[in-house]
Amino acid sequence: MPRPQRRPSRGELIATRALDRFVGRREQVAMFARNLAKDPLSPTDPAAYLFHVRGVGGVGKSTLLRQWREAARQAGAVTAVVDENDVHGVLSAMVALSRQLAAQTRPLKSFDRAVEQCRREREAAARPTDLDGAADDGPSVTSRAISRAVVGGTTALLPGGGAIATMVDPDAVAEGMDHAFDRVRNRRARGRGTERDTVSREFVATLDELCAEHPWVVLFLDTWEQTGRHLDAWLRAMLCDGFGPLPVNVMIVLAGRDDLTREWGGLMAAQGRDVPLEAFTEQETRELLARRGVTEPGTVEAVARLSMGLPLLADILALARPESAAAVDADGDSVDTAVERFVRWIADPLRREVVLTCALAPRLNADVFAAVVPEEGRGLWEWLCGQPFVSGSGDFKRYHAVVRAGMVRRERARSPRGWTAVHLRLADAHAAWAADIERNLPDDGHRQDARWRCHRLDEMYHRLCAHPGGALAEALTEAVDAGEDGPETLREWSDAFTQAALDTHDETLGVWAGRLREATATGEDPVSAVLGVLLTHRTLTPAAQVRAHLVRGGHLELA
Ligand SMILES: Nc1ncnc2c1ncn2[C@@H]1O[C@H](COP(=O)(O)OP(=O)(O)OP(=O)(O)O)[C@@H](O)[C@H]1O
Ligand SMILES: [Mg+2]
Questions:
Q1: Same domain for 551 and 475?
Q2: Whose CB among 23, 89, 296, 323 lies 3.0–4.6 Å from 488's, allowing a Cys bridge?
Q3: Residue 54 C-alpha to ligand 2 middle, in angstroms?
Q4: Do residues 423 and 493 share a domain?
Q5: Are 383 and 513 members of one domain?
């Protein structure tokens, strides 16, 4: 709720409008509000501290979470919400959560210091040294021997395994290896897990401080079917005081498409609540349509049938304000049909073009919007943000994945040349923004800059979409840089690559996405696994191969 003493921002107005569009789910909303009023230590009726909202895509989990978050705020809680866009590992999740908690309270300095320390240690340990650097006493015999074998054209096994081909100056390569091996040794002494545990302890200590000042701290972890892959074990450990005593007024809300695993049984039994969300009843669908101004009985019935009560589809169909049942009645009931119908009903050609063009960008902000829509559509940013299929709590807005997939399929088939042109325009824009950040940061500082990494990945995604074959080699080389920066950055790279494979339907990209999935599913360290696959298929340039071996070697030594 906007505070009365100051004028609301545009973002707050858009968020309020989204809350106003909320329909139904009365039982779940009332239950959550009642729970906030309970005492977690009550011997007779303690508050639940763990919720699991589950249901199919588009049923309204994230929408319910937004409503619950507002209820929590009104009850004086500090809150934070993360989804698959913020979470690439435990560290990025904690950072995203704490940033939001800090924005509502005060700077969380000791946590920030712990993260900074962890980053510095990781960076020092993981990054192999500059291959041109000279060491005083020259490279060791082992390294020299390995690199001679490499440069001589014979195959040699480096710590990461696999063969590398002919390459530059052998002594320079050997020196690089010595530095890398030293760092690996140092890092092994420290132990990889402990850095993360130190930050987790600081995170829990921070929650403890905030819990002393506020009735609740509520953490919403959305899209759990994806975020849980990284956070599941860590969160269970945290709830069992694995990183220090967790205060009783921390509340955790998970939302995802799947059931929780068996390991959650005990925690759910102890004051956990399972909240299954079903499709809307006919009454709720009618209510949603009435709110959107669709009341003609035949039309209501047709929308209810085509949407199957799925709020996402009901909403986008209602949005187009169909005037008759005949306009709704479809020959199929798929998402594509609903999307197609929705697009057809946008009467203004400019708005239609804006909606479809922006669908090609996986994440949007006002800059991306301005770079991609025609000049005359620039004033439509706020209109687009107000559409029910557009959401986003952090720096970016996104289309709902189901709607976006439908529109992307449609655009790719409708105009292949238009598809390529839009992706190239976006790739060039991201390249220019990344270069701008690079110019304004000293030395190699941009590599640690989250905005710079976003631009690099978005550029890669769009180049792959524009020309899958032509951009593949460069994209795979980018994986080596990402691997050097650590497993979380590599996951971001892998997510962007996989998205490009899905969106292009390109066979070669699909094969690569499959290989990456297989490699990371083994439970092996993701950096070694992905770099191992790249090296096995010999796709990298010789220089990238050497770097890949060094990075991978370091990770395998640690395992
Ligand atoms: N209670 C509701 N009232 C009004 N509209 C709703 C409601 N629930 C869902 N919607 C509509 O459905 C859309 C999709 O809902 P939401 O994003 O919450 O689904 P989800 O379950 O989180 O899906 P996913 O599993 O793909 O993340 C919303 O943008 C909104 O248009
Ligand atoms: Mg969701």
A1: yes
A2: 89
A3: 10
A4: yes
A5: no
Say yes or no: 372 and 305 in one domain. yes
- Report how far residue 122's alpha carbon sits from residue 86's, in angstroms, rounded to the nearest whole number: 20
> From the CA of 317, which ligand is nearest?
1
- Cβ–ligand 1 distance for 345 under 6 Å, the answer no
157-to-251, 286, 537 alpha-carbon distances in Å: 50, 66, 15
The residues facing 368 across adjacent strands are none
Rg of the chain over Cα atoms, rounded to whole angstroms, equals 26
Query: How many domains does one find in the chain?
Result: 4
CATH number of the domain that residue 255 is part of: 3.40.50.300
What CA–CA distance (Å, rounded) separates 178 from 476? Answer: 26
Q: What is the pLDDT of residues 249-300, one digit of tens each?
A: 999 999 998 889 889 998 898 889 999 998 898 889 999 999 888 888 888 8
Q: Which helix (H) or strand (E) holds 36?
A: helix 26-36
Domain interval for residue 418: 405-558
- Percentage of the chain surpassing pLDDT 70? 80
At 83, list the tokens. Answer: 């989804």
* Calpha distance 27→11 (Å, rounded): 28
Q: What is the pLDDT of residues 427-473, one digit of tens each?
A: 999 999 999 999 888 777 787 788 999 999 999 999 999 999 999 99
Strands 390-391 and 398-399: antiparallel
Band of residue 144 on the pLDDT scale cut at 50, 70, 90: very low
Note whether 380 and 340 are same-domain residues.
yes
501 CA to centre of own chain: 17
316 lines ligand 1 (CB under 6 A): no
User: Which candidate, 356, 352, 347, 303, places its Cα nearest to that of 325?
Assistant: 303
User: For ligand 1, what atom is nearest to the CA of residue 22?
Assistant: 3
Same domain, 477 and 548: yes
Residues near 378 by beta carbon (within 8 Å), at least 6 away in sequence: 369, 370
SS3 labels along 54-65: ECCCCCCHHHHH
Give CA–CA dist 79/218, Å, rounded: 5
> b or e along 322-360 (b: 16 or more beta carbons within 10 Å of the residue's beta carbon)?
beebebbbbeeeebebbbbbbbebbeeeeeebbbbbbbb
530, 160 contact by CB (below 8 A): no
CB 250 within 8 A of CB 49: yes
Closest ligand 1 atom, residue 57 Cα: 25
Question: Does 228 fall in a domain?
Answer: yes
325 pLDDT band, cuts 50/70/90, is low
Kindly report the backbone phi and psi dihedral angles of residue 255, in degrees, each rounded to the nearest multiple of 5, phi listed first. -140, 130
Asked if residue 507 lies in contact with residue 558, where contact means CB atoms within 8 angstroms, the answer is no
Based on the fold, state whether residues 85 and 225 are members of the same structural domain.
yes
Question: In sequence order, what are the residues at sequence separation of 6 or more whose Cβ sits closer than 8 angstroms to the Cβ of residue 469?
Answer: 506, 508
Cβ neighbours, 10 Å, residue 279? 19
Q: How far, rounded to the nearest angstrom, does the alpha carbon of residue 119 sit from its chain's CA centroid?
A: 20
Same domain, 167 and 266: no
**Minimal-distance CA residue to ligand 1 atom 18:** 60
Residue 310 falls inside a structural domain: yes
Residue that the structure tokens 């096995």 belong to: 536
Domain boundary among 276, 295, 314: 276
Q: Is residue 209 part of a domain?
A: no
